[in-house]
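task queued by scheduler; priority normal; single chain, no ligands, no partner chains; default sampling; output format set to structure tokens
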Amino acid sequence: SIPLAMQDRMIREADALTPGNPTKVRTLPGSHLHWLVHPAEAAAVLTELATG
């Protein structure tokens, strides 16, 4: 997995390159594969992203 500090850096750099389209971050509690054990939470986030 990518360390949190590196994730934050990549988001900042992406946002600097696309200021009119900032990154939207959703955080789910748990480990890297939490979505596999709790797929409903991940599905809800994906649905929200898809429907705006």
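post-processing summary
- Helices lie at 4-17, 34-37, 39-51.
- The first helix runs from residue 4 to 17.
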